[in-house]
Design a protein that fits this description.
- The protein has about 450 residues and is an alpha/beta fold.
- Helices cover about 30% and strands about 25% of the residues.
- The strands form four sheets. The protein has a six-stranded mixed β-sheet, with helices on both faces.
């Protein structure tokens, strides 16, 4: 093989605890210098193939592999969950981790760090705390770390999914500009903006088999595969979710935020640093309506939701009622929070247990089977939440946080990582909750996510 090439021969993968393989007998060649886009429905095995190329299967990720996987050259991987790849306290040190491990001279290391941070649009400077970054900024930081090692094969797992359109365009330009003759394998659900930058498309079918492998032109002429976000297609209608699954157990009050400022404090052994995450924010959550908070990556959308729902206290301004004064149990009973990083909320070792965990703790009975069936996870009941795909994890996080039917519903980027069909499930859930009387708020970059009113940061 040439440097930058990769291949699979008869490759199959069965995660620990699963009865059936998620990748089944894949034969695939990635030629050096190719630019390949891999698409497929949520849970079809796209991330698994990237993990196989990175050597993570059977070591970091437990399971049974058969067949062969070969890679020639240095590899750089951007994970779907960027927080999993951050290793340092400050962004400069984080990007420097790769070049330092390559043994590069100090001057060259920091030249690459500064160039990579500039390429992805992180202009804070080297000393910014990684803990103060938003999800989208974390995504850009991890990409900068990959660009800094100048790999022969670049693997990107939904690298722009948490970014606004302008920042996503900048990131794509940075990737394409840095590639040169390097090999690219990118996974993305909303893939239309990548079509001008790739020369081959691979479609994975459910069950981990290859449904299509060919040129961009042939793929578009074929009409694609059901469930994919094909160019020009309108968004699907939200799923009709039974209202008895989402109707609040108690009527919520409106939540009104006025002139909020939120400061985040990062503490280390060398002291602490304050950064303003949100300033001058006004909004209201009303029963029966969906509020969308929009804005560029890093503008404070997640912080705004947390301040309105009592999870962080503002430095100035008011929230009425002030939910931050409630005991944790009382807050959990009336408010459901779906975080941007779904793993932050997982407490158990199986999908079934996870769905019931919060509701059981609050003394609320839920129909676990009906909820799993609704969001397409019924076959994964015994699986560990950490062994799901990114899209599957987000759907699990949603029903686990909201199964007890709270009156206040807050979702942070809920439609990330979803194909058309699972997007309709997510959108159907929160819009049904609003119709049933819940006050719903979401932080989102998704222009298609249904909403009644929006606030732009």
């Amino acid at each position: 093989m040439s440097r930058g090439a990769a291949r699979f021969r008869g490759f199959s993968w069965r995660p620990v605890g699963r009865k059936h393989a998620t990748i089944a007998g894949v034969d695939l060649d990635i030629r050096a210098g190719e630019r390949v886009l891999m698409v497929g429905s949520s849970g079809s095995g796209k991330s698994t193939l990237l993990h196989a190329l990175a050597g993570a299967l059977g070591t970091t990720i437990s399971g049974e592999a058969t067949g062969e996987v070969e890679v020639d050259g240095r590899l750089g991987l951007v994970l779907q969950n960027p927080a999993d790849a951050i290793v340092a306290e400050r962004i400069g040190r984080d990007v420097a981790f790769g070049p330092e491990n390559l043994g590069l001279p100090r001057r060259e290391t920091w030249r690459r760090v500064d160039a990579a941070l500039a390429a992805v649009g992180l202009s804070y400077g080297r000393d910014r705390f990684t803990s103060a970054l938003s999800g989208g900024e974390q995504q850009r930081l991890v990409l900068a770390g990959v660009l800094a090692i100048e790999p022969d094969l670049v693997l990107l797992d939904e690298p722009t999914s948490m970014l606004d359109s302008a920042t996503a365009s900048q990131v794509r330009d940075a990737v394409v500009g840095a590639l040169g003759g390097r090999t690219l394998l990118v996974v993305e659900h909303r893939f239309e903006p990548w079509l001008d930058h790739v020369d081959r498309i691979i479609v994975l079918a459910p069950g981990g088999t290859i449904a299509f492998d060919g040129s961009v032109e042939a793929f578009l002429a074929s009409g694609g595969v059901p469930g994919l976000w094909m160019p020009g297609a309108p968004p699907p209608e939200p799923l009709d979710v039974p209202l008895d699954l989402v109707k609040p157990s108690a009527d919520p009050e409106p939540v009104v935020a006025r002139d909020l400022t939120v400061e985040l404090v990062t503490r280390t052994i060398r002291g602490s640093r304050r950064s303003t995450a949100l300033s001058g924010f006004d909004a209201r959550m009303d029963p029966g309506r969906v509020l969308a908070v929009k804005g560029p990556s890093g503008s404070g959308k997640s912080t705004a939701l947390m301040a309105m729902t009592g999870l962080v206290r503002p430095a100035t301004g008011t929230v009425t009622p002030d939910l931050s004064r409630l005991r944790s149990r009382d807050l959990a009973r009336g408010m459901g929070w779906v975080p941007q990083n779904p793993e932050l909320g997982f407490l158990t070792t199986s999908v079934r247990e996870e769905v019931a965990r919060t509701a059981t703790g609050l003394g609320v009975s839920v129909d676990v089977d009906a909820l799993l069936e609704l969001v397409g996870l019924a076959h994964l009941g015994p699986a560990h939440p950490y062994r799901l795909s990114g899209g599957e994890q987000r759907r699990l996080a949603m029903i686990s946080a909201l199964a007890h039917r709270p009156g206040l519903v807050a979702l942070d980027e809920p439609t990330v990582g979803q194909d058309r069909d699972t997007w309709a499930m997510v959108a159907g859930w929160y819009t049904a909750a609003a119709r049933a009387g819940a006050a719903v708020a979401l932080a989102t970059h998704d222009p298609d996510a249904p909403r009644d009113v929006e606030v732009v940061l």
